[in-house]
Write a structure and sequence with these properties.
InterPro entries: Cyt_P450, Cyt_P450_CS, Cyt_P450_E_grp-I, Cyt_P450_sf
Helix content: 40-55%
Structural class: mainly alpha
Radius of gyration: 22 Å
Number of strands: 9
GO molecular function: heme binding; iron ion binding; monooxygenase activity; oxidoreductase activity, acting on paired donors, with incorporation or reduction of molecular oxygen
Distance between the termini: 23 Å
Organism: Lithospermum erythrorhizon
Strand content: 5-15%
Order of helices and strands: EHHHHHHHEEEEHHHEEEE
Bound molecules: protoporphyrin IX containing FE
Cofactor: heme
Membrane topology: Single-pass membrane protein
Largest sheet: 3 strands, antiparallel
């Protein structure tokens, strides 16, 4: 950890976004755009601008999906969308060419798609579309979920301490946590579940269109209607949850409730045919991030702020960010300084 950060109040989101950015670009393209000092190169800046523009434009255009007769008002956004798509496709083609030329054929998502391209006759446009589906759906959601979990942990020092006790027991002070430790960290896993219960990043899931006239729960849903499932409300319904507003990971120790589409009380990743294909990856990323953050540091509110004053209000939207991003003061927990050094990773 940089010495100048010790005892300072940090904007947690800033660090989590960098982690998500590096994770997703490595997964998709086998490439890091950020050097070991955190400086993003030119191609990375372009990548960031494209993802940022994409989110902004599609959020605006989605309004026209619900009220089709106002579509004429979105001519500027439609033009911006076309430009965004052209920039995105150009950048992706450049990266794919570099990837092929470099002979780097490890199992990144782009390799998997290029390997299957001939066998399944997949067009280049489809490959680009699939890569960007993964980037768009995976980058912000994992960051947002980890940020909410961190806010809850700063707000609930009891839970934070209990998770650290578990990490100290299983991992100890002389090494950092690895993926192999996760099955031995049930409380940490329950924290991830409890956080996704209270703060699903897509509270209304993604929109679905009814393919036939159906009746559900006494309501007639005509063919063609856009349907949202309010998984946020279901996961806070007192009919199914005891003290639903309370952040209490222990509830999942008492009853093991699945969150990958089989138990309809808890559906942060949706269910059925269109369930999130990145669910397990997201769970692994969030668990691993939280495990490292809690094992290596203690997180406290900023001076003058009591834990219970951490603001949990939401910014409404299809994707729910914290309205006031959590800030926290960190103190290192491990005495061996070398454990805080950056580790070169094999890509
Ligand atoms: C905490 C993190 C995440 C949450 C809460 C989440 C949640 C969701 C939800 C609710 C859906 C819609 C499911 C439905 O309509 O039934 C979805 C779809 C999707 N997710 Fe995720 N997701 C997360 C992370 C990821 C990651 C890391 C990836 C990939 C790297 C990803 C890729 C996708 C894709 C491609 C779809 C569209 C699937 C389709 O329409 O068939 N997601 N996600």
């Amino acid at each position: 950890m940089d010495a100048e950060l010790k005892g300072k109040s940090l904007l947690v989101r800033e660090y989590l976004s960098s982690v998500a950015f590096n994770n997703i670009t490595r997964l998709a393209f086998g490439k890091r755009f950020m050097d070991s000092n955190g400086v993003v190169n030119e191609q990375g800046q372009e990548f960031k601008k494209i993802t940022h523009d994409g989110i902004k434009i599609t959020a605006k255009l989605s309004i026209a999906e619900y009220i089709p007769w106002i579509r004429w008002m979105f001519k500027v956004e439609q033009d911006a969308l076309d430009k965004f798509a052209a920039d995105r496709d150009h950048l992706t083609r450049v990266i794919m060419e570099e990837h092929i030329k470099s002979g780097n054929t490890k199992q990144h998502f782009v390799d998997a798609l290029l390997t299957l391209q001939k066998q399944y006759d997949i067009s280049e446009d489809t490959i680009i579309g699939l890569l960007w589906d993964m980037i768009a759906a995976g980058m912000d959601t994992a960051t947002i979920s980890t940020e909410w979990a961190m806010a809850e942990l700063v707000r609930n020092p009891r839970v934070q301490r209990k998770a650290q006790e578990e990490l100290d027991r299983v991992v100890g002070p002389d090494r950092i946590m690895t993926e192999a430790d996760v099955p031995k960290l049930p409380y940490l896993q329950c924290i991830v579940k409890e956080s996704l219960r209270l703060h699903p990043p897509t509270p209304l899931m993604l929109p679905h269109r009814a393919s036939a006239n159906v009746k559900i729960g006494g309501y007639d849903i005509p063919k063609g209607s856009i349907v949202h499932v309010n998984v946020w409300a279901i996961a806070r319904d007192p009919a199914y949850w005891k003290n639903p507003e309370e952040f209490r990971p222990e509830r999942f120790m008492e009853e093991d409730i699945d969150m990958k589409g089989t138990d309809y009380r808890l559906l942060p990743f949706g269910a059925g045919r269109r369930i999130c294909p990145g669910a397990q990856l997201a769970i692994n990323l969030i668990t691993s991030s939280l495990g490292h953050l809690l094992h290596q540091f203690t997180w406290s509110p900023q001076p003058g702020v009591k834990p219970e004053e951490i603001d949990l209000s939401e910014n409404p939207g299809t994707v729910t960010y914290m309205r006031n991003p959590v800030k926290a003061v960190v103190s290192p927990r491990l005495s061996a300084v070398h454990l805080y050094k950056r580790v070169e990773s094999d890509m």
